[in-house]
Amino acid sequence: MKIDGGCLCGYITYEAEVNPEKVAVCHCTDCQTHSGTAFGVVVGITDNQFQLRTGELKTYQKIADSGTPRALAFCPECGTRIYARTENDDSKFFGLRVGTVTQRMELVPTVQVWCRSAQTWLGDLSSIPKVEKQPQL
């Protein structure tokens, strides 16, 4: 599936070829911290499936719990996270952040990973009231 996307401010744009069956909810503590929320949603791709169209990404290197160096790539202007990439293997695996994809509604997760780190309150979100847009505070 051909996709495109970019950052919040428009400085970064990209195109990629993805397999919609490779979408995951990641509950690792790095995704929780980096996203500022309970989990990340990524689609797995490799280096040759991603093409940066505009802008230049900034990266931060983080050593994952597995000991693997990871490059966390983001927009230097608005801070939008674009991907996390494995640094020390030949696959150059990317976890492309689904929230940055224009066609994100078509990329439905097929698996959850790092569930041992999942927030316990995620078990049943259906019991939490839903509001269509931002409510009056």
Automatic annotation (TrEMBL):
Per UniProt, residues of the CENP-V/GFA domain are 3-122
GO MF annotations in UniProt: carbon-sulfur lyase activity; metal ion binding
Keywords, ordered alphabetically: Lyase, Metal-binding, Zinc
Q: Which Pfam families match?
A: GFA
Gene3D superfamilies per UniProt: glutathione-dependent formaldehyde- activating enzyme (gfa) (3.90.1590.10)
Question: Would you identify the family this protein belongs to, as annotated?
Answer: Belongs to the Gfa family.
Know the name of this protein?
CENP-V/GFA domain-containing protein
List the source organism.
marine metagenome
